Structure prediction request, 289 residues.
Amino acid sequence: MSSLAFILLYGLSYGLILCLIALGLVVTMGLMRVINLAHGAFSAIGGYLAIGLMQQWGWPYAVAVPAAVLSVAALGVLAERTLYVHLYRRSDLDQVLVTVGVNFVVIALLTMLFGPNIVQIELPAYLKGNFDLGIREFERYRLVAGAICAVVIGALWWVFERTSAGARLRAAVDNRGMAQATGMNVPVLFSATFALGCGLAALGGVLAAPILPIEPMWPLKYLVLVLVIVALAGHGQVTASVLVAMLVGLVETAGRYLFPQFGAFFIYLLLIGLMVWRPDGLLLRRRAA
Prediction:
């Protein structure tokens, strides 16, 4: 029972954090149709900013985190207007090459500024310690981080699935000319959406810092996990992204807990199995042969 409780609690909390990071890429890659493989770079920048504000400037955790998220969102607007706007009509290969190149530039800058080693984040006292759940203890930080992720994910689902903002974005992506003819300010809409994706990446990076430690290679080190969630969820599927992230979190946690010698082997088995079973996404019907 204790082992099962560990896998469930830690797997679900881990999955929620992965989902938050992945949803930023779901927004830019799934809804905006931009293959942004530099998504992890914005997560790493968010983590480094929050840690820097806390360590160098003495900002409290509750202030440093939103400041880092807003700063990365603003950086996203700048990146979208100066770089990504030129990629919208380019081929998939061009988008992949440019955004992978951005990753290496960011990795080099982070290494130069902060060194090659892991940077630890110091949590405030109110986030340290454990809760006694009877069966076993559970980290207070994971509970708080999971709750924050759940609230943000729920709000994002509501915006894209239940408001006109999501409909306008999908309309602008599907037929930009028609959207502009109806009065939509498509460049502003795209900039705001890209900023949202970058902000989600930064928030995920900060919340993941105690679990997925911040280091210069972060943008590439955890890119595969994020891409697995996006690929298995299907383009722009928020609900499917949550389900896939939970599944990835549980499989990753169970695999490393029960069979640590196999590492991430089970994640790739999950990827292969779900891609064969649901090639268009977890919640979409399989294409007819």
Q: What stands out?
A: The radius of gyration is 19 Å.
